[in-house]
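Quick note —
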Amino acid sequence: RIIQNKLHALKVFCPVCFVITDRSYLAEHLARYCPIPCKLCQTKVLPSQMKAHEDICPQKVVKCRAADINCSWTGKRKDIEKHSKQCVYVGLSPILSGLKQKVEQQQKKIEEQEKKLEE
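Predicted structure written out below.
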């Protein structure tokens, strides 16, 4: 028990950030407080903030903003602005969205009329 206590109190270097800490605290330090590199862009981020970073990481592969109207482009988030300026679908998106909304409204009216006919 004495040896175990001595081992837990042993001072060690964090292999990532080189902070000196108790050996017994190292695992918690690594999991909660030690910045780790993003697998995509190598930016150092706290583990608790990695999910938020992934949502803005410039190296993450994303779809075009007009993917819902058949643009098949995928690329790094950092390149999406350049793509959007050249993408025909992005330019058509407002028009097609308006048409899609009108079609949905018409479909709803048709369904209402069909229900009335069934009665």
